[in-house]
Each structure stands twice: as C-alpha cells, then as structure tokens.
Amino acid sequence: MVANNSRTRKKVKKESFMQGVLALMFSQVFIKLLGYVYRCYLTNKEGFGDDGNAIYGAGYNIYALLLTISSIGVPNAVSKLISERITLGDSKGAHRIFKVALATFAVIGLIGTLFLLLGAKPLANMMGMPEAEMVLVVLSPSLFFVAICSVFRGFFNGQSKIKVTANSQSLEQVFKTVFTIVAVELVVVFTGLNTQIMAAGATVATTLSTMMSFFYLYTFYKLHRKEKLVTGQNVVKSSIANKTVMQIVKAILWVSIPMSLSAILTSLNRNIDSFTVMRLLQKYLPYEEARRQYGILSGKVELLTGLPLAFNVAFATALVPAIAAAKANRELSKGVKRISFSLLTTVVIVLPCVVGMVVFADPILKLIFPNAPDGAFIMQICVLATIFTAMEQTINGALQGLGKIFVPAAALTIGVLLKLILNLILVPIPREVFPLGGVVGAAFATDICHLTAFCIVFTILKKSVNLKMSFSKMMIKPLLASGMMAIVSYGTYMLLNSIIAPKMATIIALFVAVIVYILSVLILKVFSKEDILMLPYGQGIYSILVKFGIYKEKIR
Asked: Where are the domains of the chain?
C-alpha cells in the first residue's frame, strides 16, 4: 500500500511538472501574440512605421534595462524565501519577508522612476535620438508599479498560487494592447500624425497596464490575506522575528541579484544597439534614414525573431526547480534525462522557425507589415541568433538548477563584449562596401554574442553532467525535417504566387510548412518512445502513433 502511494505521488508530481510547462508555454505565447497585435498595428499605422518604432524602441530599451535592474529576479527570490518559511510552518516569518520586500522594492522602484523622469533628456541625447525623451518620461511611473508587482508575484508564487501571477501578466498584456490602440488613435484625432507624440501615446499604455496589474494583485491580496499560509502541523517559532530589517533585505538581494544578472545582460545587449547604431549610422547616412534603419531592427525584426523563444521559455523556467529537486534527492540521472529531452525539444521547436524565417523573410514582412515591409536581409541575419539564444536559455535553466547561477551571466558577459566590439567595427561600414556592414552588422554581432554564450554554457554543462545526446538525433534529423519543410513549402509558395494573391500564397505555404515539418519529424522518428512518454499526455500520443503504424512497440 505504501509503495502504491509512493508511485501515485511520483506520478502526480510528474504530471504537475508537465502541466506547468504547458501552462507557462500557453501563457507566454498568448502574451507574445497580443504583443504582435499592437506592434503590427503601430508599424502599419500611418505616421508611425519604422520611424515610430525607432523612437518607441530606443526609449523602451532604456526602460527595460532599468526595469530589469529594479525588479527582474525579485519574484523568484521572494518566492524562494517565502516557500522556505511556509515549509517550516513559519507564517509570521513569511509575512515579514513579504512586507520588508515590498517596502524595499517600493523604494528601489521609486528611485528608478525619478531617475528615468529626471534623466529622460540626457538619456535620449546619449542615444542620439532626442525624440525619445517624451517616451522615457511617460514610461517612468511604470518602474515603481512593476517593482511592487514583482514582490506580490513572488509572494503568491511562494504559496504555489502561480495562476495569480499568470492572470496578472495576461491581464496586463490585454490592457496594454487595448490602451495602445486607443491612446494612439486619440493622439491622431487631437494632434494629427505626429510620430513623436504617437510614440509617447503608445507608451502611455505600458504605464496604465502596469497600474492595472498592480490593482489586480493588491485586490487579490486584500481579499485573501487572512487565509492561513501554513497548512501543515509542524509550526515552528519564527526565526525571522529575530532578524533586523537590513538582514532580511540582504537575504532578499543575495538571492535576487544572481538571478537578475543574465536578464540584465540581455537587456544591456539590446541597449548596445540603442547607444551605438544610430550614432554610427549617421557617419554616412542622413539622420532620418539612420532612424528608419534602426527602427527596422528594433521594431519589426526583434519582434518577429523573438516569437520562438516564447515557446521555449517554459522549459527553461521549469528546469530550474526540476533539476534542483533531482540533485537534492540524489537522482541526478533523472535530471540529466530531463535536460536532454528539453534540449531536443528546444531544437525541434526553434529550428524550423529559424529556417522558415530565413526562407520566407520577405513574404512574411509583406504579409504582416504591408505598409512598412523593408528589412528582409536584416531579419535573415538576425534570426540566426534565435537558435543559439533558445539553446542557451534552456541550458541556463539547467545550470541554475545545478547551482551554477553565475555561469550564464559570465558567458553572456563575454558575448556582450564581443557584440559591442563588432558593433563598433561593422556598423560604421556602409552595406555597399561590405554586406555585413551597417545595421546588418549589428544583427550579425548579436549572432556572435549568443553563439559565444551558447558554446561556453554548453561546455560547462557537459563537464557538469554526463549528457547522453546523439548528434544525429539532436541536429541531423531536425535539420533534415526543416530542410524538407523549406523545399516543399517554398515550392508551394512559388507555384501559388503566380496564381493567387501573394499574401494568400504566403499563408498557404506557411500552413504547408507546419504540416510537412510535423510529418517529417514523425517519419524520421526524431523523438524516441521514452521522449514521447515525457510529453504531456505522452501515453495517449504514443498509442495513436502506434495505431498509425509510425511506431511499432506498444506501451506495456
């Protein structure tokens, strides 16, 4: 009976882990898709286009960097500390950590808000884009609200109320999408097609949506704050009660800072383009053209190439606690299998997206941004970084789970330095002189940055655990499947393009690409039986594949 109960607990744990992956994946994809809605609206809006994207993107990258410094890593840090207190039965300690964290990051958020508000003009001038000043001013209050929201999310995550966090993030994105469209339309009605004011109007939505997210989290807290955090019987005397406020603050920062480093460096990587591309392009291009080129990179290209990462972030997030638990339970072999499975799934998901964007770069841009379709070659170069970023993202989750929390940041630091050097060398060279010059050089530098970081973290991971991965399974088969997809789908596009409207031909060809790729993955048997059984509802999927004769062996 005890053995049966043990097996049941293990099964529930496995299913909850995989369901968590699915929930995170759908949540991230939903948020990304809503982001596409308002960014597509902005890019195609008369008077906005690539120029508006440049102003919006430059201001938003500075905001994102300050946001990362002030709040990214906070939910995980607070969650970890709250969870530890709850596990020990220390309800008072958990509440004290929450209150101290709330006060601490309210102050940090307020400092960030004042810095952005008062420093808007010099920051905009440093980027070589004075039009971004108004964007920074409008965004400044968001830093305060996001910092507070991060503490609330960590408090709920520590109680395993992850759905509250997911709901708040989804709600925030819904409001952001609606407010963006409404704000820009109001700007046009009252001020006309002024690109600078339209960009500032679009960022008003960010501030308003973060305020709405805060009100949702605060209301939920007020309604449920009297609920007992501790459900077990092993209630202990609070050890936190004897600690000073500064000791608690240090404990929170000690956990949150390492978790924030990689995110800070990723944001810093984007800001390298903000501070270098515009200035370097103006050495041989008029200001308006330099701004348009930067807008293509920071608006359309980064938006599209970031979509595959929304699918992958769920595995990177879920790996941290999964590997940590396996290590703690001295079952690292199970953790290694999960790492190998996650890496394979990353390749299978992201590689066809990269190949598809390379092959269909021009048709995709014309389909999504009919009023501003330029930038196909920039996108083809930039999207190559996506496969390295995704692999790096997954490996970072594994390394953090193994306790090597500083390795991802160190690897990305080297990559970011290379990115800066290459930007300074390549961007000042006109594309007419060298194909990888100009704004394409910045995209190529991003490729090298993430390729370097990936090579470092992969090497460290292989030295840390005994990864058993077949090169044929990990790369050859997915490449073959992606190649077959590209040939059939592009052939379909070329055939239909002369018969029907180009946009419809693109949609049909992309649909064909999805079907051909799935069939190719199944025919080549990229996933083994063991891999399929690790998927959510894996047994049902495997049974269906056996019925169709794709796999022969039945589940015992």
From this structure: 27-226, 272-468
Rounded Cα gap, residues 73 and 320, in angstroms: 13
Question: At residue 549, what is the residue type?
Answer: G
d(C-alpha 131, C-alpha 122), whole Å: 11
Of 313, 295, 160, 144, the closest CA to residue 214 belongs to 144
Q: What DSSP string describes 38-82?
A: HHHHHHHSTTTHHHHHHHHHHHHHHHHHHHHHHHTTHHHHHHHHH
Label residue 47 left, alpha or beta by phi (over 0 means left) and psi (-120 to 50 means alpha): left
Could you read off the pLDDT of 495-514 as tens digits, one per residue?
A: 998 889 999 999 999 999 99
Phi, psi of 174 (to 5 degrees): -60, -50
Residue 277, CA atoms < 13 Å, CB-side half-sphere: 30
% residues pLDDT > 90 (the chain) = 27
Which tokens in the block code for residue 236? 């202990």
Predicted confidence (pLDDT) per residue in 426-482, tens digit: 999 998 888 899 999 999 999 999 999 999 999 999 888 888 777 778 889 999 999
**Distance in angstroms (rounded) separating the CA atoms of residues 105 and 80:** 16
Nearest to 41 by CA among 188, 160, 223: 188
User: Distance (Å, rounded) from C-alpha 283 to C-alpha 25?
Assistant: 43
**Confidence at 70, pLDDT banded by 50, 70, 90:** low
Residue in 77, 143, 93, 86 with CA at minimum distance from that of residue 113: 143
| pLDDT mean over 356-376 | 91
More confident residue, 238 or 527: 527
| Model pLDDT, residue 14 | 41
In this predicted structure, the answer to whether residue 112 has a pLDDT above a threshold of 80 is yes
Q: What is the pLDDT of residue 16?
A: 47
Three-state DSSP string of 132-182: HHHHHHHHHHHHHHHHHHHHHHHHHHHCCCHHHHHHHHHHHHHHHHHHHHH
How far is the CA of 489 from the CAs of 174, 350, 482, 486, in angstroms?
33, 17, 10, 5
Name residues whose C-beta falls within 8 Å of residue 56's C-beta, 6 or more positions apart in sequence.
42, 135, 199, 202, 203, 299
Residue 237: pLDDT band with limits 50, 70, 90: low
CA atoms of 432 and 99, how far apart (whole Å):
58
Q: Dig out the tokens for 457 from the structure.
A: 């973290």
Long-range contacts of 91-98 (CB under 8 A, 24+ apart): 91/228, 91/229, 91/230, 91/235, 92/238, 92/240, 92/241, 93/238, 93/239, 93/240, 93/241, 94/158, 94/229, 95/229, 96/238, 96/240, 96/241, 96/248, 97/240, 97/248, 97/252, 98/151, 98/155
